[in-house]
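Dear U.,

Please find below the material for section 3 of the report. The protein was modelled together with zinc ion; I have listed the sequence and SMILES used, followed by the predicted complex structure.
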Amino acid sequence: MIARRELFPNIIELNYQARRRFGCCVYLVFSDTDWALVDIGYEDTVEELIDLIRNMDFPLTNCRYLIATHADADHVQGFKRAAELLPNAQIVAHPDAKRILEAGDRIASYAEIPAQEISIDMPILVIQKTVVDGDVLELGDLKLDVWDTPGHATGQLSLRLNNLLLSGDNIFRDGCVGGIDAHHGSDIPAFISSLKRIQGSDVDWLLPSHGPAFGNDHALLQSTIERLEGYQHMADFGTCAVDWPLLDEWDDELAKGTPPVK
Ligand SMILES: [Zn+2]
């Protein structure tokens, strides 16, 4: 038996529990009876993680949900194997993530990045339960409120438990955000809305899908929001921008025949 190292009441994070990094954050949320996992990471760490869970005395038959924060391979590649080991668990995702995962969309799930010769297995998952914003997932006497927080990816869920938000790839402790990539379904205006919602909430702690938990700090969120507001009008993320003011200036200058200026 291994002593449970709760990150917060009713939440264990498996990298923190093991005192080493497996991959993405894997949150085990538990009530007196039932428990759930939020993300699992890559397939090759699943058996070790499930062993760890078993050794913390969580009956494997009491796992009710395997919740995908979003459809990225580094978060959910292991769900097929995990579901084989957790016979009563339903795989849960937003309908947009379900579409990606059930269609085997290897670009949207980051299983395939041809330009970087990245190509990994991504098993086709069957999503047994879909949830949308406002839904509540019940886990014994606990209630997880479902938030739809798109931006990094379409169909990205965050889950609220009291004053905690399992916040996916919205923002990390250093102010970075989940990758912005048109091929991945990223949407900068939606991203800003998701960050503003988190910032404006009375959630005290953010439990991200990568790196340590941190406070819902207004100034940190604000600086990240302002950075993304800038991206909306810059060419840096290509077609994810909403406009590019330089082209309007160029139109004017072309019409006037303005010579090069230093
Ligand atoms: Zn991620």
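For the text of the report, you could mention the following: The longest helix spans residues 218-231.

Regards,
Y.
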